[in-house]
């Protein structure tokens, strides 16, 4: 079993998690974290690990913000257009909903700030770098810029992203995007719709910039420019001009003109002659010689040689002949005219012979060059906060092999539990309270609380403090002060499973109400009462199959008899109920902590109950079992008494409490 300190951290942390989201169902299962409407699941991890708990609590708070303030229809609208737009919306909405959450729940500010610090340490939030693509730089700039308004420690990361944004995109884009999104704009965003509008403006500006990169790729210099790589043609010049790489044909220039890079290009003649448009073109040489039609030939014109019409070739005229427009060819004129680089064809016939033979799609429809690289990078999830946070929580939980008993979620008074068969007899209960109160007072006051302290004078010297005299410490004398106040926190758990018949349920209600009322009358004693299992219902009145611990009386509230009119149903998850009650007790400041379990039958898991009681004892919570007419297994490490009637309770409590305070 874990050490006492580990168990203390575990129960305190479980209590922190369970009390984060009053209107959310918290479950512990599997090895992944997820959020659905009204529910958050955390993996079975080491709750004595403060980092794991910090990340889990931060995740719960973050998802609670989405539950309260996010409108999902705008995410659907963004995703239909682009996953990248959805990512921009998510970054803005995360900051927006966290800001509203911190305004409504002040305690969340500290937990979310700790989450950001831990995310930096774990590499979820990373420094942007020059190696990142333009798309990632933009995502980082929006992510960190949005969170700065929430006073989160991401200033350095934002400054780096801002500098890279200007370097990668240029001044025009940099100035334009700062008008769309800046701290003033972020402070004005108060709903998901405004997040969407801002994200859409950023996305539209970015895509316009991407289109400009395509235009840059398609333009070449008029003369002396470097040849480009074309998918379908390699042109070899007659006199040493740079070659273009083409997969299917070679065209040779007569006099050193620059080659053109075109997937499906138009041929320009030397002196303005008209071009002919033909799927399989005939080339006419300079002096009107007849062309030969060859299926797979390359023709090289000098000045009047017969040109070949090739399905996959490019013909180049020497001077003034009519140029042929071939669906898959690039023709280069004779005297250094500008080469054309175009991803579309001006031919009247849109298909080419290569497409007919191979069935390939039109390559001209695919983005090329820098635009293609940018578009390919849009799906990079390096700055996807939610995905990486869930992955990190799962990573921290995957090596946890110890058994974990899932605690019950604590809920308030559940109207579904009220039933006429559960009504307790108020008259009998008050008589029972009178018989309980005085014995309980004597027990608590007999067990005085002793507090040790150090003073400048006294009768007993502390050996551990004696050596500090040379440093000027004069408080070396031990003193003991006896506290007459009981100073105790007590939790009562009541089994309301289906095995509790009407008479047993009425007895359990009477006993728990009498105990709570009697304890509440003792100064310095605080008590809480919870029934398990309690099931909620959905909008259609159907039971939700997740057991809860129904708190009918909190530590700071007076007991009311109407709150104890509970009927029985469901199983007996006693171990889970003990886990929840223990997590509440360990966070109490009272030095004495006791847990009473009132039950009538076997728990769902006897071994888990044994473990839960052992862990409770290890962290200073004394467990005492009260059996309604039956002995119950699993309480071997706790005091256990069986009562047949309400009046047997006084003797059982007296015996149990005396033993608990030994």
TrEMBL record:
Where does the VWFA domain start and stop, copy by copy? 489-662
Q: Where is this region: Disordered?
A: 213-370
PROSITE patterns for this protein: VWFA
Q: Where is the composition biased (Low complexity)?
A: 345-354
The highest taxon in the source lineage is Bacteria
Work out whether the entry's keyword set contains Cell membrane.
no
Comp. bias (Acidic residues): 213-344
Polar residues composition-biased segments: 356-366
The UniProt keywords, alphabetically, are: Plasmid
Name listed for the protein in its UniProt record = VWFA domain-containing protein
Q: Which organism is it from?
A: Shewanella aestuarii
